[in-house]
Design brief:
The protein has 3 helices and 15 strands. The protein is mainly beta. The protein has one domain. Residues 1-9, 11-29 and 263-268 have low confidence and may be disordered.
Length: 271
């Protein structure tokens, strides 16, 4: 059952964000995302509702040079929640101009497992610094690890926003360095086709993208496809993971905008 959960939630969240294209070194005049944006996805496993994933973008302060921070949450629901409860929260920080990740904090509550993981990217030392605690075993010593990184790297959340700022064309193949606390992996992405996708928000013209994350970042067999809307926002509107336990699908349910750094209650919906 633990393995089932990891496929349903971890695979979906990872696929949502493990995408990329050629490195952007300057912020676009018309950005596809802005602080205050909230994306909400329904996740299903075969015919069952599995849970919900949200991604909320804010700034760390009020200045124009302040970093962006995205909070991604994954919660199990319904039948899946009865089998294995999940409440994961990931907070990642990145430079809005270079798109380089500054680090990520992950609080993962999954059944009987509860871990706090912190990854900081030290660019002057060219190191990823990982510190992890098992919150179910207070007497257990924390884990510490260091790994090499390139001059600019993404984590499993910031890669999502990195992708949205890129120019995507069918037939292109791209590589993106991603670090999740161990060896940096170069995720290869194929931009495959243009397709129409129906969602609760309506019909979208999309680009179908396939990240080659299996046997690299994800040590298991499978295939993943992502459909990105082809307008200026380039939001993932559908994510599908085809793995041993079945097909997991995440579909965009809503896009809302709130005032930057304000409570979610002030958010408004848009298409």
């Amino acid at each position: 059952m633990a393995r089932f959960k990891l496929y349903v939630i971890s695979a979906f969240v990872t696929v949502l964000v493990l995408l990329g294209c050629e490195r952007a070194r300057a912020q676009n005049a018309a950005d596809p995302f802005r602080p205050g944006e909230i994306l909400t996805y329904d996740v299903t496993w075969t015919v069952f509702r599995a849970g919900e994933v949200t991604a909320t973008l804010r700034t760390t302060g009020q200045g124009p040079k302040d970093a962006y921070q995205v909070t991604a949450t994954a919660r199990s629901e319904g039948f899946v929640s009865l089998l294995f409860n999940v409440e994961d929260v990931l907070r990642a920080t990145f430079d809005p101009h270079t798109l380089c990740s500054e680090g990520i904090v992950k609080n993962m509550l999954e059944g009987r497992r509860h871990k706090d993981t912190r990854i900081a990217f030290n660019y002057p030392r060219k190191l990823a610094l990982l510190d992890e605690r098992d919150l179910t075993q207070s007497s257990a010593p924390p884990k510490h690890a260091e790994s090499d990184i390139p001059p600019c790297v993404e984590d499993v959340v910031t890669a999502f926003y990195y992708l949205r700022r890129q120019h995507l064309e069918v037939g292109h193949t791209i590589e993106l360095p991603v670090n999740d606390g161990s060896k940096t992996q170069r995720v290869v992405v194929e931009v495959q086709a243009r397709e129409k996708v129906q969602t609760p928000m309506g019909m979208f013209d999309t680009l179908r993208v396939e990240p080659k994350v299996f046997s690299g970042l994800l040590k298991r067999k499978g295939r993943m496809l992502i459909w990105l809307c082809s307008d200026e926002r380039q939001m993932p509107v559908r994510i599908k993971a085809m793995i041993a336990v079945g097909t997991i699908t995440g579909t965009l349910r809503s896009v809302t905008y709130e005032k930057a750094n304000t409570p979610r209650a002030e958010a408004r919906s848009t298409h």
